[in-house]
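agent: user wants the full assembly modeled, not chains individually. Plan: 1) parse entity lines 2) check alphabet per entity 3) run joint structure prediction 4) return tokens. Steps 1-2 passed, two entities, 1008 residues total. Proceeding.
--- entities ---
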Amino acid sequence: MSREVRPPGVVRWLIAKLTPAEYEDAVLGDVEEEFVERRASPNGGTVRAYMWAWRQVMNRDVWRLRSEARRALRGEGRPMSVLDMMGVEFRQAVRVLRRNPGYAAAAVGTLIIGLGAATTIFSVLNGLFLRPIPGVESPSTLASVQASEFGGAFGVASYVDYIDLRERSQAFSEMAAFKPRRVDAAASGVPEPVEAVMATSTYFDVVGVDPLLGRFFDSSVDRGAGAHPEVVLTEGLWRRWFGEDPGAVGRSITLNGLSYTVIGVSPARFRGTSLMSSPELFVPMTMQPHLMPTSGNLLESRGWGGVEIVGKLAPGTSSEAAAAEMRTLGEALGLEYPRSNGERAYTAVGFREAAVPSYVRGPALQVGTLLAGVVAAVWLVVCLNVSNLFLARSIRRRRELAIRVAVGAGRGRVVGQLVGEFMLIAILAAFGGAAFAQALGMAISSQPLPIVFDIGVDGRTIAFVAFMALVTGLLCSLIPALTLASRAPRDVTTPASGPRPERRRWPSRLLIMGQVTVSVVLVFTTGLLAQTLANLAGAERGFDSSHIITARFDPSLQGYDAEQTARFYQRLVEETGALPGVRTVALADGLPAASEFGSDGWFIRNASDPERSTSMSASAVSTNFFSVMGIPIVAGRGFTDGDVPGAVPALLVNEAAATIIEERTGRPAVGEALGMNGPGGPFLEVVGVVGDSRSGRVTNASPFIYGAHEQALALGLGGTRMVVMLKGSADMGELSGPLRDAAARVDPNVSATDVVTMDAFLDGLLAVERLTVTVLGTSSMVALGLAALGLYGLLAYLVAQRTREFGIRVALGAASESLQRIVLVEALVLSASGLVLGGVLVSVLVGWTEGFLVGVSPADPVTIVLSVAAVMVVTLVAAYTPSVRAARADPVVAMRAE
Amino acid sequence: MRDYLNDFEQLVLLSVLRLGSDAYGGAIRRDLEDTARRSVTVASIYVALSRLEQQGRCRSWMSDPTPVRGGKAKKHYALEPDGVRALRDAKSALERMWSGVGDTLDAVES
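--- prediction returned ---
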């Protein structure tokens, strides 16, 4: 039997819902009948029939039939259905807004600012913490296994532990280990630095990704260190290097100088499992000894491998159960291998949570909370402002509303009408707000960020903006509407204009005061944070960053040994030193920023408690580093050309480290010695003390140790990955090209990365602070501007109302200055009340802002004076025009009204 | 009450007249489409008919449900004396207006 031919169910349902009961059968029957006929006709009859059926409900006629039928029934007392009422309300709202385009535009525009700002912040936090990782099939069934040592934060794990955990785990049906790593890669020609991920064969299976082309790793790649030079390209790299040629599979590319066979391509959607990097290729984990030549073989050492582990939960297992199992297995490993695992604990955390590591999560949440607070403040000002606008407009319509009540409209209908009108505004603003957030999100994404994430508008964002629009709409309209509706019957007798009974308009005054209050808080906080930023940027760094351009190199990627590395850097210094405009060239392990260096435990030879190690950072530098950076030698000597391999190894320490050494030994630092291998030595001699240096958010110099580059290399204490610093006498920004060329002349296979002037680098350390101040500054400008507009509107209205009174005053001999004063005082009283309330609010929020401040007190008097002055100036500007209008009051005009 | 028919009401009433005992919503809609070349929705037919019924120009009744049309009944319409009068008025108004301008129309067009 063939399927019954009927119009789409939705169409039938809509007809049944929308047509009045007495027409329902007739209309439905007609539509069904004709639909069947139309479908039977040849040449695309089916498509046309469906389009026709839809047209029957998607038009105004259905609604017209409703009101027509209602008109037919009028007099029989049939009440309106909710649907009817909403339809009427909606049409009425559209009509009202069309008649008042200025009001509508002002309200919608203001709301867009509030909703757009809130939505932007929401979409950033959404992208960071909520949005699923693209391309990962079912993230809820995945968990990340993390380790911690000595009770520290949980994070990366060890590869050999992974093998044991995978073998013993029941909670995970499969596990995979992976490790991101930057490599020098080339399809042909000069290699470029590329983000790679070393992964076990199970990786793609666990995350649920299928190859776009070719295949992924088979299980054989998990055995035999260095035996599987295979590579999977991401779709992006495949397109960039092979122009989407399917023949790329089977071809070879070089990674760190060794040839790898392309076995497959991963789909474009998949961009790795972390928000912190976006890998371009994948290689087997077993290639680690080749890709990380200086780190030794992590595949066999139970030591700290820095490997990430992700697992697919066995059916029916919760991530809590998996976490418990990992804890137990971790303890078991600790008992079996007390030397390596004694202080190591394991756990499992949610996959999405692990995509943002804790060192990003913390600061991001902190800044996110601040921004969310700021946006909430702006939103509040917007609501108060629009509420005031709405109130002012509705008051003008009091008579209309009163008459409606008088002729029998229920109060509910009147409130419904006002709220309905406002909801239409809120809906329009929601669309604008979403577009605003999309545009701002795109602007944010185009910035160079260390995080790869989607900010665009998604379902969650739309739900958020819809919810916000609803709340905003109700908040802004419900109270004014209720107030007006309750007063409505009395207002019938009130004339639309002319003399009125005493009207203080205190609701408007309160709303304006609220706006001033929030603006004060924003302006004041901006002031404090701007000073913090200035303090950080202008802080005495202890070194001279001007006229320096820097670049990073890592010749160990090409398999250089210590001697080759030393020769490479010697030649690099010669080549780059010969560039025009370059005076000297220095080398260092990293740029002077706290985040550049890890710290180690150092033992002090003659300390009173020699068993105790002190955590200090260390860097290998060239002998001329201190003169190039302008760091003074405070005591002892600096490095000399005599500090070469073979000579007695020498160390320099900064003042902070020298203070610690002196405290622990009771003797001057110069002449003391430090070691890393334990209280028994060996020790390296401290030959001098240099000045402290600081940067970024760090204001207290941390203890720091410097070793001579070539000695450090020979002793195996680092010095392979170095930053080259070219010092000149003018702006060095233009030298990035020549610098790369010079480096390519030394060895074209060792690529220069992160070529940047030192000033720009230091600037970048304060990027988050700068962004925060910019956002806060913009927000407080917007808030203050809106408050000023609201104040202006209120004063203009009051002056217009009191025209008669002012005229009489003039007639009785009042000077125009005194009239102007009345208005200005009114304005200043409003602002002053807002200021006082704002002051109270600021003092409540002190504890919260304090954490963001550097070198400025949360009750900084200068900032207080400046904020008060700013608000007062804005108040006077807003009040000026209305006050002048008051001063020009004409007694004749006033009397004529009598 | 408006004492004349607008253009659309006139077409709908004419169709009721033409279709006789077969005058129900769907048939009228098709007649307007086929004969008058007006493409309109089902609902708009009933909007006009509802108004005409209130004006006493036609009457309606529901037929028995039929197995076709999803088992739905048809709403049938027939002219009332007021409807017949209104159609006559409309016709003579049009005829008076048209008398003698046929040649003028041709002249304007050429």
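agent: reporting back. The first strand of chain B starts at residue 58 and ends at 62. Chain B has a mean pLDDT of 88.
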